[in-house]
Amino acid sequence: MSDTLELQSENETGLELKFVRFQLADEQFAFPVDSVTGIINWREVTPLPNVDEHLLGLANLRGRTLPVSDLRVKIGLQSSVAKQDAFIIVFEKNQTQVGMLVDEVLEVLTVKEEDIQTDHAESNLVMHELIQGIVNVDDVLISILDVDSMLGGVA
Questions:
Q1: Which domain, by its residues, includes 43?
Q2: Can you give the pTM of this predicted structure?
């Protein structure tokens, strides 16, 4: 990673963390920057038989096979994104690259560690296990997703 894109920094007000902020339907979510290896535009996938509903299939990424999962379906939202306008956030787990389809990538977000609420009992039961924390940015609640939980069943 570039020296200009630090994963975390500490200043006089405390530890700052960086996240990739993205949109799914009308909700905003984030993944820690250090878990993301790339962001690519939508590309066609080859469907696979007898797989979980969220697994869209396999894509070619620079000569490597990339399983792509629909993050909307994975978290319990209806899959209705126009895929040609979507993005795939790429992760690497167990030396395997995995892609998560999202509607839109918004920004790299920097937040103070103390601003992240980890007590999110108000979130629904489906999401409770998938969320690491919630942060409020400009009156928008952003759920920080647990990467390992998201990649379960894909990698």
A1: 19-151
A2: 0.83
